[in-house]
Each structure stands twice: as C-alpha cells, then as structure tokens.
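Researcher: Please generate the 3D structure of the following complex. Treat every line as part of one assembly.
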Amino acid sequence: MLVLGIEGTAWNLSASLVDDDNVLCQASSAYIPASGGIHPREAAQHAANNIASVIHQVLSSTDPRLIEGVAFSQGPGLGPCLRIVGTAARALSLRLGVPLIGVNHCIAHIEVGRWKTDLVDPIVLYVSGANSQVLSYRQQRYRILGETLDIGIGNCLDKFARSAGLPHPGGPKVERLAQESRNYLPMPYVVKGMDFSFSGIVTAATEALKSASLEEICYSFQETAFSMLVEVSERALSQMDKSDLLLAGGVGANMRLQEMLSVMCAQRGARFYAPKLEYLQDNGAMIAYTGLLMLRHGIKTAIESSGANPSFRPDEVEVPWIETH
Amino acid sequence: MDRDTLEVVTGAEAVVALRGHSVVKKRIPKDYRIAELDTKLRKERTRLEAKIQSDARRAGVPTPIIEAIDSFSITMERIEGPSVSSVMSEAVAENIGVVLCALHSAGIVHGDPTTRNMILSAGKVYLIDFGLSSYDRSLEARGVDVHVFFQTLQATDDRFPALKDAFLAGYARNCANAALILEKVNEIKERGRYL
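Model: Done. Output below.
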C-alpha cells in the first residue's frame, strides 16, 4: 500500500511517500526564522509558499495512480500551519480520488519510532518543542502517564536561548555550550508523580545570566531538565512493568539526553531505543506511515471532520493496530 | 546484603528490604544524574518522606513508626498483615475512607494511595510508602488521591460500586467536604488524566 503524507505543524514542512516497509521519497522545506523564534504567521506563510513544491517532488517520484491515501498532520500544532496542510491534503485527496486521513502528530512520532526500531509495546518519552509526554499503550490507546504541567522542553530551551541572545533553534547551541562546563548551579527540579514542570528552570536560568557563565548555565539547565525527564521515564517503566523505552521527538536529538536515558535503562536492565535524527525531527514519513496504519484498519477522515485541531491530544486517537501478546 | 535481610523489593527510586521487625527503605544512587544533583534529591526526598510520614502518624493516621533515618534511608516499623487488596470488604473500604480523610485533614496527600500501599493490621488500615506524598490542602490534590484509590479498586475488584459507596461513607464521617471531593473526582475522571 502506498500512502502520501504531509507534515506541517510548526517549522518543518515535509511530504513523503511510504509503503508498508520503506520510506520511498521525502521532500522537506524547513522554516528558519530570520530572528527570534517561530512566528506562527510566518511559519504558515512559509508552508503556503513551499507546499506545492514539496508535494510535486513526491508526486513526481511515482505514478500518482498508485497512491491509495493522503495523510496529513491534523494537530496538535500551530493553527495557521495546520490549515495550509489540511487544505492541500483535501485538494490532493479529491484530485486523486483516494481517502483522506487526519493524523495526530504525536502518535506519528511514536509510530515512526516503533517502525524504525521494531519495538512492539514500549514506554515512550516524547520530547519536542511544544510537547513533553510519557506515554504507554493500553487497550487501544496511547495513555498519557505524565506530561509537562506548563511548557514543552524544546520551547523551554529555545526561550532561555533567546534571552541569552542565541539564535533559533536554541537547543543545539545550549547542548554545545553545556559541554564546556562541569560546574553545577542548582535549578528548580519539579517532578510530581509522573508530571513535571519546566517554567521555573527558564526563570532561574535567565536570572543566572547576570552572575554566571553561559556554559555553566547551559550545563546546569540540561542536567536538571533532562534528569526530570529520565526520572519520569524510569517511573513509567517501573509502574507499567515494561522493559523497552522509545525516544521520540526533535529534542531526542540531544546526545546528553540520549546518554542519560541509556544509562538509566542499563542500570535497571531495560532496553533503550532512539530512531535516527531524520525520524526524531518532524518529518512527512511519520505522517504517511501512521496514515497507512490507520487506512489498513479502515480509519479515514471525512472532509467535514478534517478541520485543523491545534490541541489534538494523543489519547483521543483509537489505536487498533498494536497487537500485544 | 547481610544475612538478616529477608526480602528485597526494588522500585523505580528505592530498594525496600525487610530486616527483622523493621523495614528499610533506601534511595539508591542514579548513575544518569550528576552526583551533586543525585545526592541533593535523595537527601531532600528522604527527609521529606520521613517528616510527612511522622506528621501523618501524629495526626492519627496509622503509619509505621519511624525508627531511624540517615541521609538516604528510613528504617521503620514493619507492619504485619495482609495487603488490603486481599481482604477487601465494605467495612475495610469504609475504614480506608476514614483514614484518608484523617490524612487530608492533616494537610497531607498520599500521592499513591493504591491498595498495594495499604496494610490491614490488628483491625486498622495502615498507609505505607509516602514517597510521592506532599503537603497540599487543595481540593484538586485530594481529588487525585481519591481518584487513584478508585482506579485501583475498580481494576481489581468486581464489587467496586458498593466498595466506593462504603469508602465515601467513611470519608464523609469526619470530612464535611466529601461531596465536593467526589465532584472533583468525577471532573478528574472526565479529563482522562490528572494535571
């Protein structure tokens, strides 16, 4: 089965064509803000300017008559971007005469990770700009065991990086600077059961700019925030009695976070998996592949219910394609 | 491990060992965290857990007596008896309601009041494992406690509706705001998770 998918929830506009086993083609166009962070209107303008081109690149890689479905990121994400992608997907599905499939962006991150690592039923740590959640599959749904009480880890890093005068995206710069220090400054460590909060770290780190070096602050920031994420991941493994951990989302590219998760898993005899960078970041293949799974299980989206859903939660989605023993 | 140690349970955060008439809960170092942060967290949490547990006991909530505390471990009285899940009845559920109300009235929420964390001993329901407890007087936090208890009950016992009513009767005996709490529990259930 061939499915075309379009991702466009924030910074990366990406279209892809997949079959059951492989990513056949992917074309992307990243929005890089001239200054500051992601501006929703500018991100949407970027999507509008480039969507015809990315879709064209993917369509021209195959005979369009072989495509059996058009999947698109329906949410969560920035409303203006979601509307561009939704409009393009509706048009394409009507033109090709194939079903439309509205995909939850968080679920797509998980599914592409499971696909590329062959995991069946892992605990998932999903960390991106706007989202930070610990999820576990149970009875036809991904359950949110824990999540941020305020902002996502990526936005938390970016927000601090902006106050420190670092260009967007801030995460990779903070990661590099953090390697230059081993001096830990205490920062607010907030874990409540399996939920966590990052806003206190942003305030503390911004405040520390007056008195400490940027390297020290970046180091302390990462150690504190990532320890919180690793702690809740471990609690989830323990409580759900699972032994696989899957990392998903763009912040997963951070090597210090990967190292900490892998140490935690090794210490408790669990296994840790992270897909390659191209599947951690937002990508069209994850939308196409999740659309394919949904279509295989008869799930389609009617035009009238295909509107953008900026606050679409992963536990709203029925997941009939996982077979646990 | 010395030879007097009988049984060991490893959780996400701590190792719990039965040693004679005592239970020793020790927070183990986590290699993924830098030592400074790891030491600080384990010390703070050990101290807080011991304080909350003894405050609860002082407020009349049956909990194990704390015998000793050092930087990372708490030694406490071992409570002999079955987990309430194996002896659940309407009377026990009502008793749990009374105990949880007493805890909440003392300004404490347990954080993880599953039936695994309750022991029936000499006719009294003991609360154990205050590792996720906090000082919190909010309706929300109390609602989460009750919701967590209902969830474990519902998942493990077919008599859930009757047991739930018995619990609420026990809770309402000394806690005038039981109706508000129940409303909160329903709201939390609707949300699908607790924020």
